[in-house]
């Protein structure tokens, strides 16, 4: 069994939707299990990573490989943003001991910092010891070493603290799902070769152009969305016949070509992530108790924590009283259960 350790849910997003994970009850928060895999979202920091890794290794002795996955900052001008590296040696700031990973062919070393590195001066000091910096891998490596378990650190480079940057934390959060897709593709190709991505990809747009050219209309943006979806569908192993069935079915409805295209993209997203469809429907059902013709509530896209955004038009005291009553009766625990995977 593989244990996958992430700091944040956004970094784990693609993995949670690709594999059939279920929430592990009566244990630490944000632990998910599939048939051959355990996934933990530990939060930032060396200590959190060590606690979660140790707890999982103690409770699940069948774990044979541990992976620290997520983003890292480049400390080496030769490593570019969006590049994926596997670390050879793991260091920590203000720690004497280092840990070797099982990836001896790697040329890159990683250092974990107790705090975020947001300026060039701090990054320059760390660059003498390693090629990239993260915040968790040392804790994962330390726990794995104690339990004598194989360990790997796979990181996608999000930025370079050696360069002047602004609002980098917000940028990394916005890009989290893209980073997650990159990590999943690398993990599948490198460690689950039976699920690796085939070189000769099936092109949805070519099938549509050949058979249903007048039934759909693609702007540049919509075509780009379709190409991204196609890559993810192939990654997940969705059979092309299922995709073609959706296209044939939609081509027969009476909607306009662009409306069919939007519906096609929506259907393919549901095909890709049936769990996410169920998730969104459940969230919408919970939020319906807050919504009416004057009030609209939605979940913020920030995946770090549950945040509601509410827009309301109030023109009379009775409307305000009604909104206050709905807020008082709203059961937040229902949202907690959904975000913990208890759907």
List the helices and strands and how they pair.
Elements: E1 2-6, H1 9-18, E2 22-23, E3 31-33, E4 37-41, H2 46-59, E5 65-74, E6 84-92, E7 99-100, E8 108-112, H3 120-126, E9 132-134, H4 137-146, E10 150-159, H5 168-174, H6 176-191, H7 204-211, H8 220-236, H9 240-251, H10 257-272, H11 274-287, E11 295-299, E12 308-312, H12 317-329, H13 332-339
Parallel strand pairs: 1-4, 1-5, 5-10, 6-8, 8-9
Antiparallel strand pairs: 2-3, 3-4, 5-9, 6-7, 6-10, 11-12
Helix pairs in contact: 1-6, 2-4, 8-10, 9-10, 10-11, 11-13
Walkthrough of the structure:
By secondary structure, the protein is α/β, with parallel strands linked by helices. Helices cover 44% and strands 19% of the residues. The chain has 13 helices and twelve strands. It has helices at residues 9-18, 46-59, 120-126, 137-146, 168-174, 176-191, 204-211, 220-236, 240-251, 257-272, 274-287, 317-329, 332-339; strands at 2-6, 22-23, 31-33, 37-41, 65-74, 84-92, 99-100, 108-112, 132-134, 150-159, 295-299, 308-312. A hairpin with an 8-residue loop joins β11 and β12. α1 (9-18) packs across α6, α8 (220-236) runs parallel beside α10 (257-272) and α9 (240-251) packs antiparallel against α10. The radius of gyration is 23 Å and the shape is globular. The two termini are 25 Å apart.
């Amino acid at each position: 069994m593989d244990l996958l350790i992430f700091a944040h849910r956004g970094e784990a997003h693609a993995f949670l939707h690709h594999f059939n994970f279920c929430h592990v009850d009566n244990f630490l928060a944000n632990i998910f299990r599939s048939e051959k895999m355990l996934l933990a979202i530990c939060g930032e920091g060396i200590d959190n990573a060590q606690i979660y890794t140790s707890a999982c290794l103690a409770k699940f002795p069948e774990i044979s490989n541990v992976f620290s996955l997520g983003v890292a900052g480049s400390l080496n001008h030769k490593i570019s943003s969006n590049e994926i590296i596997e670390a050879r040696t793991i260091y920590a700031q203000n720690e004497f001991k280092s840990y070797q990973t099982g990836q001896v062919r790697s040329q890159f070393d990683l250092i974990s910092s107790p705090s975020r590195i947001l300026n060039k001066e701090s990054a320059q000091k760390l660059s003498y010891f390693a090629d990239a910096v993260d915040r968790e891998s040392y804790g994962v490596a330390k726990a794995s070493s104690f339990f004598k378990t194989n360990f790997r650190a796979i990181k996608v480079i999000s930025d370079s603290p050696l360069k002047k940057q602004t609002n980098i934390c917000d940028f990394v959060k916005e890009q989290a799902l893209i980073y997650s897709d990159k990590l999943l593709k690398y993990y599948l190709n490198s460690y689950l070769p039976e699920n690796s991505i085939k070189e000769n990809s099936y092109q949805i747009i070519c099938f549509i152009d050949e058979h249903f050219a007048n039934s759909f209309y693609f702007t540049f943006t919509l075509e780009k969305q379709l190409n991204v979806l196609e890559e993810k569908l192939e990654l997940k192993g969705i059979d092309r016949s299922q995709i073609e069935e959706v296209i044939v079915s939609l081509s027969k409805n009476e909607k306009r070509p662009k409306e069919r295209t939007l519906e096609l993209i929506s259907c393919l997203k549901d095909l890709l992530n049936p769990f996410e469809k169920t998730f969104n429907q459940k969230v919408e059902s919970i939020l319906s108790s807050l919504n009416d013709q004057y009030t609209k509530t939605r979940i913020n896209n920030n995946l770090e924590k549950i945040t509601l955004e509410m827009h309301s038009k109030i023109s009379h005291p009775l409307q305000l009283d009604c909104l206050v009553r709905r807020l008082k009766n709203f059961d937040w625990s229902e949202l907690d259960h959904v975000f913990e995977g208890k759907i």
